Amino acid sequence: MPSVIALDAMGSDRAPKPEIEGALHAARQYGVRVLLVGPEDLLRAELDRHSSAARLPIEIVHASEYITMEDKVEAIRAKRDNSMRVGLRLVREGRANGFVTAGNTGAAMATAKIVLGAVPGVDRPALAAVFPTAPGNPAMLLDVGANVDCTAENLEQFAIMGDIYFRAMFPNMFSKKPGAPGPRVGLLSIGEEESKGNDLTREAFRLLKHLPLNFVGNVEGRDLYNGQVDVIVADGFVGNVALKISEGVANLVRTALRESLKATITRQVGALLSRSAFTDFKKRLDHTEYGGAPLLGVKGVCIITHGSSNGNAMKNAVRVAAELSERGINDSIERGLAVLHAAVETVGAQPS
Predict the structure, then answer these.
(1) What confidence score (pLDDT) does residue 178 get?
(2) What residue ranges of the chain have pLDDT lower than 70?
(3) I need a labelling partner for 184 at 20 to 30 A (CA). Which of 43, 79, 131, 331 fits?
(4) pLDDT of residue 134
(5) Is the dihedral of CA 106, 112, 117, 119 positive or negative?
(6) So what's the pLDDT on residue 276?
(7) How far apart are CA 337 and CA 342, in angstroms?
């Protein structure tokens, strides 16, 4: 049975156009049933511009209100029929397998916690972003913006959730043998030594090194893309800055390379001959291919993507939401947290 994904059609900067384009592509390519959530008259007018819409599994679920980027988090209580709340309610009621929004991150996280609730053992959900590395394998950074202020215990939970999520999404990267090392988990800091960093990272290091994870210690900003670590843990402030800088650099590289290839006739000929390689290169650095960031630690699938998302980003966000649902990520996180906490308590209870 195909997945059903609720899509906040009023979240992005140019809503509802990118959302509807993404829904059409996702329904066509992946067979996903998409529930577009927002003002019905507005969505119907945009949807009717696409002749193929009538033949695809796309429906509209009316929501009379929506949250803007300028709204404060408190708006989720004043606007009780907003598209985020209605979409997440569809997940809670079992009418949708997951929810996607390109809207206000703070409002999305707060609404998800209210409507879906947190997984037992999770104090704060975290946003996890997947990106490419030089060797070609994926890596993941969390938190990338859900929690700007964190405790060391929050980072400990992020590491556990990141380990579980990475194993579930990329199972072929790890040996099935008992006791085989799992994802390499690193703590983002300003130096590799345990003593480096601030009070938060030093305390987090102390907690992480006692977890039954493949913790490789502190990693620096340059390690995000060298393939030496799989899961990178940071507070939401640092993680968001790292992510946005990375996206800016990727855009610079793509633009500079394109301009350089067009500079002379010789280079233009070379560009034509290498068009396939250049297309692959651009796709590898394109953040819209990675489908937004899952909010790990809530009782349901919730994907938050950029407000500037285009149709391709929305399509891939819907795809990721369907994959997370099919693989039972939330159940895995809940079971994994229980097992790891039990292991830590056992170690702590042993006489020194």
Answers:
(1) 65
(2) 1, 175-179, 257, 260-290, 340-341, 343-352
(3) 331
(4) 79
(5) negative
(6) 58
(7) 8
- Token pair belonging to 203: 């305390």
Supply 347's token pair: 């170690």
What pLDDT, on a 0 to 100 scale, did the predictor assign at position 343? 65
What domains are there in the chain, each with its CATH number? 1-122+297-352 (3.40.718.10), 127-288 (3.40.718.10)
Max alpha carbon distance in the chain (Å)? 74
pLDDT of residue 262: 66
Beta pairing partners, 214: 184
CA dist 155 and 149 (Å) reads: 11
Is the backbone of residue 292 left (phi > 0), alpha (psi -120 to 50) or beta? left
Residues 101, 9 contacting (CB under 8 angstroms) = no
Question: What's the pLDDT score for residue 246?
Answer: 79
156/335 Cα distance (integer angstroms): 16
pTM of the full structure: 0.84
